[in-house]
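Structure tokens please, single chain.
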Amino acid sequence: MQSSHPDFVAPDEAVERRVNSLLVQLTLSEKIQLLGGQPKRGATFPINRLGIPEFKMSDGPMGVHWWCSHATAYPALFLAAASFDRSLWQGLGVALGRDCRARGVHMLLAPGVNLYRSPLCGRNFEYAGEDPYLSAQVAVGFIQGVQSQGVTATVKHFACNFQEYGRHNISSDLDERTLCEMYLPAFESAVKEAGVGAVMTAYNLINGVHCSEDPWLLNDVLKSCWGFQGIVMSDWVSVYSDRAAANAGLDLEMPTAQWLNEEHLLPLIAQGAVLEPTIDDKVRRLLRLAACFGWFDRDQLDSSISHDDPESKEAALDIARGGIVLLKNERKLLPLSASKLGRVAVLGPYAHPAVFSGGGSAYTTPHSSVSVLAGLSILLGDKVEVLHSSGPEPNPQRLVFGNSDFQSPLGKGLVGEYFNNPEISGTPVVTRLDEYLNFTWGPSVPVPEITVENFSARWHGTLTATADGQHLFYSRSHDSVYRVLLDGKSIIDTFAGERNGLHTAEVRLVKGQTYTIEVIWRKTRYWGGMQLGYECIENRGKEIAECVALARSVDVTVLCVGFDNVSEGEGFDRPFAMDPQLEELVLRVSEVQPNTIIVLTAGGNVDMRRWLSSVPALLFVGYPGQEGGVAIAEVLLGKICPSGKLPATFEKQLEDRSSYESYHDDDHDQRVALSDGIFTGYRHADAYAIEPQFCFGFGLSYTEFSYENLELDRSRINVGDSITVRFDIVNLGQFTGSEVAQLYVRDNESSVPRPVQELKGFTKVRLFPGERQQVEIALGPRAFAFYDPTEHGFRVEPGVFELLIGASSRDIRLRGSIEIR
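Here you go.
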């Protein structure tokens, strides 16, 4: 563990003596109590008689919550990674650490560093992209910043959690080289370089073993090989047994101990199946964490820091400024000149109010937020007329779940039958009228008569169509399986498919005709709920027409589309393409307004095939946090020169990604073989000569940079040596701007398959027009190594390595070589 906080004490003999003096005073019952969290608290149990306080935790990567109603909402980590700026990552950590201290929080449950394997993953926005080196660098800066404030970071989700569908049940099956070379480096750097205090296990299995129960992953790799001295905690409700989890190296079960409790552990300890020294080690790690970070000796609450901290707000704005990526700029439409504008239309559902975050545990409610409309209105002032129309509702299910008309013998609504078992069998414990099917119970139960965790329900009734034509049925649940039947025919069925997220079915109904409706529902895990609704979709288009009319009447249109916290978030995966209505909006608006700028909100790549060629300018803003509207307006108007670079390859079609045939559990055996191995992301595109829509590391600027005068401090080195690479970057344009120079390494000859090139270094430099600056990048031995499973470690083979330096993975400006002997 490491920290620059003045109260931090490195884990040494004095710390161990203090920890052991507390440990010997604890009863076995108290020790076991420290292995799980307090119910509905997000904190460990206190042991007041020994002066051990509760240790508070909080999500997450985009802002501190649970212990407050509002907090600063920062840009998502994917956008922060796009900045390629180590100072911003550390600044983000510092700001989050201060926010924790303002609320008395000891452990921040971030950062997430799972690799971006597919644009479909609902939590991509929380992660740092597709490259293990970049993810590691983001993690190190973030963790160092958080822990400098006397708060421990928690790196997650360990490991290979790259999808949200079936995340409790799916096994990621992969070989040792792929695991250690691609999916573990960010975690390794978090432990070895940043000294992270906590690691959170993932929901999924690896090679058939749940991560929270994997002794090789937790004991052998994390604790023994990497020397991790902190605590290993479970993700919320991701422990699946007692003995396996206890012996595998899991130290803390969250949010409460369903398995690591006295009921389960005392018999195992009596039998010798779990040893008391194993329990002691878990408790010792928690006490060590508290002793090192000074939690025993000071109040974690720092009341001098405001909940609405101006420093945090400024940090959120700086990260958004640095991460926004300009992907397309035909005719140099951007930056806009305010003096040449008369009327501007700011259109689309994400123009206002602000869309700053994806959904799930990362979502943070801010004190205030700035939308794109507000940001542009502020900067343009009274000199330019700013018009606005929201366009179509991007999530129409929100309007129908609590507004759909059903009928039943009991009255308006559906008859709900609730069963105190998971099989919908026997006599229901409660039968009642539910006017709408719009329930999000979470871990609670709908009626007190339900006494089991996994219960079931059935709803039935009728609906009468009020219009002829196509109707769209929407349904959503969480940690449940269900089937929707219309006139006895199944129209939505998740029993054999993806369970969470939005599901739809399009059905033609006849006006005045009555149809039976039935829903069969079964809760399968911690959360519960069921939502169902429908609408006639024959008369859509009015909102699009309003946007088109405005677009036709102005000089420039800024059109804000993509995804939001409803359509992209934790617990479910999203589609590749935006809602069809949003695609239609882009096509219709760009048809009448040649100066259309797309502001794209999303956690990663989006299918652009229908509309990209029709728009001259495209700005990828990820999820830009509460100050995103300010940063976006500044970029659009040239107050800030865009400098973000994509942290993931944006492919043209899903088929172009390596995960296309190794992502979904198509054969329903709950196992996914990562057959792409180490060739993911740009490594796959390079190996198979696939032209991406936008390559890894790509991002346009308002100025131009040249790369010159490559120098290596040595042309030959020995295995195990390091080298330093130097070169000049020159700003040739008229704007002050920042450039991200990327260094890729290529092994010209290897005994094993290796990628065409791999990112192993980068630097970001800010230059005035005409300014030249020499920069340097150091490469250690690991930059040239691959993982050898026969030796269970990384090694470097002698030979010639090329050093490729450029503005992106497909825009190489300088080339050199180094011989390793």
